Amino acid sequence: MTKEEAFVVHKDQVDIRNLLPENNSICRLSIKSTHSELEWTILEKQERLRTLLLIGCKIKPGVALKNFARLRVLDISSKESDWLVDSVCELRHLRYLSFSNTNISRLPGDIHKMRFLQHIHLQSCTKLEKLPDNITKLACLRYLNLRGSNVDVMPRGFGGLTDLRSLHGFPVKMDGDWCTLEELEALSHLRNLSIQGLENVSGSSVAKRAKISNKKRLEYLDLKCYKYKDYEVRQIEVEQQEIIEAVFDELCPSPARLETLLIRRYFGRRLPNWLQSPVATTFKSLKDITLGHITHSTQLPDGFCRIHGLETLRITHAPAIEHVGPDFQTHDGGAAFPNLRKLVWSRLSGWKLWDWEAESKVIAMPALEYLKLRDCKLPRLPPGLASDHRYNLRIIELVELTLLEYVENFPSVVELKVYNCPELKRMSGLSKLRTVHICDCPKLELLEGVLALDSMELDWEHWEVTGPDARCTPKAKGYQQAQDELPRELPQDLVIAR
């Protein structure tokens, strides 16, 4: 239906010379990863182009964009693209500009001449360190993404871009003549906001003036401190921890529409007080929470279980947490985590006890479907987890649980993955289990009560167990291998009971 206006060139179509229509009628053109250098002169003949996407293409140095004056959308993700920057401002009608994953080191100083520009995507431009001052004059700008770039300062006056709806990778800088955190106050229409470098904020009063709580349309909030490498090696003083705790307390978002919350590389000993009960109950729309690299936090908030709409909770790299008590999954006003479907705990290397008894009066996580535990020292899965999840929990992944000895009584689970659990000896009570993957579990002796098992992978040889008689057949090896060789590859003491 669109063949006269839109055209897509795939990577196996090397020569575009004979592919493009001769009448130069194409308005939208996408070229992906051609093996040879692009025939730029052929592209320039497409005078009606409104959309141009060049993905992974080889672009000849010295070419320019001046012949594409009618473009509204330009998306270039070709690694070597820096020389194209100088001619970008020739595209006066451009609305959408993306140089993501390229080697550009700058934007044109006269970018303000592109007065219709609404969308700038600069993700993973690692050589980009600074934005031109005139970017503050782009009155129509609605989207700016700096994630993965090395931009660590914003021009003063950035808060004047009051039409912004999405801002990703905003760097906090407190010294010098740069935009500071307070300038976010004026951006009241923001729906998506990602802030990095929050360790630079000098105190809670500065954070308060950003007025994050006044952004009633905010749906996505990402709060982040140090860059990854800096955070790994940095020593944190108690005074610094107290300051960052006070700063994050003042960055409380409006609960009106917030759906996604990320807190990463946070070095406070406690998490923000607005995640505690009863304040957390006000987040009626919150569906997804991720806490990553909260390395100094020793306790999880008791407010999570009271967020009624929460569907996904991820907690990663939290080595200081040793004990998760009943307060985490207890809610006196009804079911705790009533709509939680996905729960991921990863890199909690100090976690030894999950206190959740089977006789708990409060049902917790009744809708849970997916559970992943990785790198912790739990000797067992809590009885309450099994007793409250006889109907919905379908997938469990257990990775690097170095002290785990058994997995049992999960009758609703249909898929189980167990990797690198050196002390695991038995798995049972899995009556609906259809697929199981087992790797690096040298002490595993018994797998029983798996009446519905269809497929099993052991170690890296990928043996498949199929049919009513649980016959072992090679899945990854050639079928010509003699059947009498198969049992020698199975763990010597493993018993499969159906």
TrEMBL record:
Q: Which residues form the Disease resistance R13L4/SHOC-2-like LRR domain?
A: 49-407
Do you know which Gene3D superfamilies this protein is assigned to? Ribonuclease Inhibitor
Matching entries from InterPro entries are given as:
Leu-rich_rpt_typical-subtyp, LRR_dom_sf, LRR_R13L4/SHOC2-like
Q: Please name the SUPFAM superfamilies in this protein's record.
A: L domain-like (SSF52058)
| Entry keyword set | Leucine-rich repeat, Repeat
Q: What is this protein called?
A: Disease resistance R13L4/SHOC-2-like LRR domain-containing protein
Which segments cross the bilayer?
A: none
Which Pfam families would you find in this protein's record?
A: LRR_14 (PF23598)
